[in-house]
Amino acid sequence: MHPNTNRALMYVQANRVVEMLVTIEPQYRMMISLGTSSDSDAACLAIIEDIKAKLPLSIETGFGPQARRITFENALAKISERLEHKYHAYSIFFSLLKQEIRAYNELLELVHVTCADLRRAVLGETVVSEVLEETQRTLLMHEMPRIWRKRSYPSTKSLRAWISDHLLRIAFFKDWTRLIVTYVEDYKTLSPLPPTFNIGAFYYPKGLFSAILQSSARSIALPIDQLKFSYEVLDQKEERLALQSSTASFEYYLSFANGAQWDYELHQIVDCTSQQRTHRLPPLLCKLVPKDTDNLDSTNVYECPVYLTASRAVSASQASKHLVGTVAIPCSETESFWTTRSIAGILEIDE
């Protein structure tokens, strides 16, 4: 067994012991971290206020209503004039952006409504329902309530880590809407698309790949079934600066569970030499090429599966939901070597 695999096993076992202890007196964990009194209701109210203070009511698109610039909605209506004949290829990205913003806004609304209802219940202004009771219990255990998990994207993070990650996701789409507004107003801006996509921020990562596929097919006038994805690891700063607006690069957080890391000198993944369980892969340049294009030497390439979370697919029925796709990565050993180790990439690091 690889040393990192043994460490991963001990990590899982330790977490299970901690979770068991927390379920005995869950309120103590949050009361200590928040510095509140011994009253679990007071601790719950403090958690609610902390969540409401950190998470916005919705994603603020564009530069806000008080800005002198045009709104995000007006920019989308005018962007076809700037793009001209290229609008047909770019429009799929704008539809994806609106879909992502709508999904995040619905989740944010649910979070704030639940917090408001739970606050009234804790203060005795309304009846405590079974859902609110479960929500209070999980908040005191520093976990996401079940009602949020049903609406949220898959995540294995604790409550505070989930909030911090959620804010980073929101910031990505907020910056994208501002980029579109700037693109319409300032002709010095070359593209309405981000230079690098953080695919881990997407509610529906597969939707981004579909958008890339459809956009490329429209641009090069080839049927979708005649195209395939091709990846290149950009581990040099010069390569990143050379990216053109017509291509799209995606930044993955890849965790090589049983011990693998990227070697910047050999430009390939190698057996892990450190005790760190997760390693970040450099940005990936994703391109669409015809299917008849010759591939790299398959003996030096590992078709690495990419999952949403470190839990991967807990069952065959959930494989399609949690599996994002596969990425061909240069490697130092044969593909069977990495397959035996169950090396896989994840978009969310378990913190």
TrEMBL record:
GO terms classed as biological process: microtubule-based movement
GO terms of molecular function: dynein intermediate chain binding; dynein light intermediate chain binding
Protein origin, superkingdom: Eukaryota
InterPro entries in the cross-refs: DHC, Dynein_C, Dynein_C_barrel
Signal sequence, start to end: none
GO cellular component: a single term: dynein complex
Domain called Dynein heavy chain C-terminal: residue spans: 13-346
Name of protein: Dynein heavy chain C-terminal domain-containing protein
Organism annotation: Rotaria socialis
